[in-house]
Every structure is written in structure tokens, then in C-alpha cells.
Write a structure and sequence with these properties.
globular; alpha/beta; 4 helices; 5 strands; five-stranded mixed beta sheet; single chain
């Protein structure tokens, strides 16, 4: 499914390193107009979900991308190629790490979060603490 995301949306693989030196597996999809100042949505997966599964929700991805909004997908620790254990504390810290990466290294000022199912918990945490 990773390859399908690459073919369909032309994203970029990103690996972040957590505070405990665990790899966090991420994927960045740029909105259609390629503006550096475009807003970015952080997508927080549902329970047991990998970001690769979002390929089956192309309507949602297309909505954001076609409206010039970047999307940043990430796998919780222990999912996909991310390392470590997906504890609530780790997921929260990693979500803030993702937001800081987008803000500082991607230069994005406007960040939103989209949480699906249990992904609403880290989405709320990111929104409140980033």
C-alpha cells in the first residue's frame, strides 16, 4: 500500500527519531499547489490502523490535496516501520514531535489535526499542546 500511495499521490517518506531513539515512520503528501505556506493536516490513525491503510480512503486524501492542504501521516510506535511500544504517553509525545517537525523543518505555520476513531485522542492532545 505504501507503493500505491507513492504512485497515486507522490508523497515523501520521513523518519523522525523519538525522545527514546525510536524511529517514527511518517509520510508527507504535499497539496496540489506546492505552496510552502500551505496548511498541513496531521492525520492520526484509528485503532490498529497503519497510515498505509489511508490509501483506501482516497476521497478524504483527495479533498485535502485538491484544496492545497498538505497531509502528514504517521504510524504510532509498534505499527508499520515505527519502533517501540504504542503507550498513551509515547503516542502523545510522538504527536507533538510530528507537529514540531512540521512547524520547524517544513516551515508550516497553519497546522490542523484529523483524528479517526481512537486517533481523536492524540489529535486532541496535539491540538492542545503544540
Amino acid at each position: 500500500m505504501r507503493e500505491e500511495l507513492n504512485i497515486t499521490l507522490g508523497g515523501q517518506q520521513v523518519t523522525l527519531i523519538s525522545d527514546s531513539d525510536s524511529k517514527i515512520d511518517c509520510y508527507y503528501i504535499q497539496g496540489w499547489d506546492n505552496r510552502k505556506s500551505a496548511p498541513t493536516i496531521i492525520y492520526c490513525n484509528p485503532n490498529g490502523g497503519y497510515y498505509e491503510f489511508i490509501y483506501y480512503q482516497l476521497e478524504m486524501l483527495s479533498f485535502y490535496v485538491n484544496n492545497g492542504i498538505n497531509i502528514f501521516l504517521w504510524n504510532y510506535r509498534g505499527y508499520g516501520d515505527s519502533e517501540g511500544k504504542p503507550t498513551p504517553d509515547n503516542v502523545a509525545k510522538d504527536g507533538v514531535l510530528v507537529a514540531n517537525y512540521i512547524r520547524n523543518l517544513k516551515g508550516t505555520a497553519k497546522i490542523g489535526v484529523h483524528g479517526e476513531s481512537i486517533g481523536g485522542l492524540p489529535a486532541c492532545y496535539i491540538a492542545n499542546n503544540s
